[in-house]
Here is the input.
Amino acid sequence: MTEWLHPALLLALGALPLGVLQGRGRQAWQLVLPLLVLASVASLESGTRVTMQLAGLELTPLRADGLSLVFAYIFALILFIGNIFALQVEDNAQHVAAALYAAAALGATLAGDLVTLYVFWEIMVVASVWLIWRRQQRSAYQAGYRYLIVHALGGMLLFAGVIAYYLHTGSLAFEPLAGGGPAFYLILAAFLINAAAPPLHAWLPDAYPEATVTGTVFLSAFTTKTAVYVLARGFPGTEFLVWLGVGMTLYGVTYAFLVNDIRRLLAYHIISQVGYMVAGVGIGTTLAISGTAAHAFTHILYKALLLMGAGAVLHMTGRSKLTELGGLYRYMPVTFLLYMVGGLSISAFPLFSGFVSKTIIIEAAAEDGRGVIFLLMMLAGVGTFLSTTLKLPWFTFFGRDAGLKPAEAPINMRVAMGLAALMCFVIGVMPQLLYTILPYAVDYDAYTASHLIKEGQLLLFTGIAFFLLLKHLGGKDKISLDFDWFYRDLGRRWVGGARDLVSTANADIRREFMTGFQRLEAAACRLRVSGWPMRSWPTGSMALWTALVLALLLVFGLGR
Here is the structure.
């Protein structure tokens, strides 16, 4: 089946009916389609390759191996969970966009050449922006346009890098790239933009909180994790990525403390968690690469769970700021409990998924003799526990009662959150289920006494510090400036200057044209055509403009 029908193609074709189906039929297809894709991915054997010739180029649209299959499995799985969460949405455009977005991410993951990768890379951008715009608010439209501009830059860099790579090597195969050279740096820069690496990272916390409630769940899963995959494929062992990744872990948790919007807080934690994966790619050992794949798998699940919880709060209350929330536990207890499973997972709490994936990367750093990297990653974990697992749920579900009395989230939302929470727990207690599908064999036991004591002490003292400093940690109704302020301000100035320049140029052209036109009209009036004074046509008359344009076209046409 998969030799003639690519899983990404199956998903893309399956997205088309979502544009016309309604009601129960549409809901049923939303559930069946991801399961068909998951079955298609499961039928792929490691080592499967499909090649083709196109315009003299040898392309590999499908390559399945240990690394790509891990990401393909979780992409299909999260589409299923996300579609359950979105069953109540009566907006066909969102469902089509989500399916095409997932298809593009799946296609990029299974691409064995750079041309196929580039095509799916661009489709991913075009499909994903609709999940932002379909919220149909001014802020969403603006954030979506900024999202497009940044990713257009990334696409241009990738395109230029692919051309440079082909000219230098004569090959388009997507394999680890040799260090140095224009192609290396152009492609690396393009991948890092999608990974939300600073300083061109602010598109993520700018756009994701502005997306639809269900769209944010899909956005959190595909773009940055596809970037992690291509980095692991193309740049393993790149030393620069180690320090960049650690910087991302600390940068994300720092900004998460500063923001007031719950979805923006979680968006910054995407940057932080992706930082662990980027650092793992940079370390480049087999343990680190397997840890990166494992953490990408678990991150997609628990981050979707966290954003589903925050989205449920927004859906039921219409509010997403910490300063406007509080006391929701009595009205949304199931949402709170399921959110906390995600919070414990992202904090690497024993018995939950993050504990058996994040610690692999940290252990890989220790085994590679990187003591400073080890300590900095542990420090970032403190910030994660403080803001995501303590601060956000405390000021949303407990704390000051904001007087809101919402109903519990719809049943489909709770089912989706429950399924993600169950997987977070199952992976946490039976990590071998995950370890068996990793690209390299993992001889790692997370539940050693030293690991448990280390994580237990870290979480315990962080929790004590939180409650001691509780009165200083509440949300602040302020805007936190990030790097996007620079290019947003410069862009605003550039657009304003360009508009003034165009207006001035148009005025000059109009003035010169009208002067010449008036002279032509005066001469024509003296000639009298068939006794009918042309001055009877007013200046700017549509008839005269049409006649002049037709005359010019005729002259140029005869001249050719």
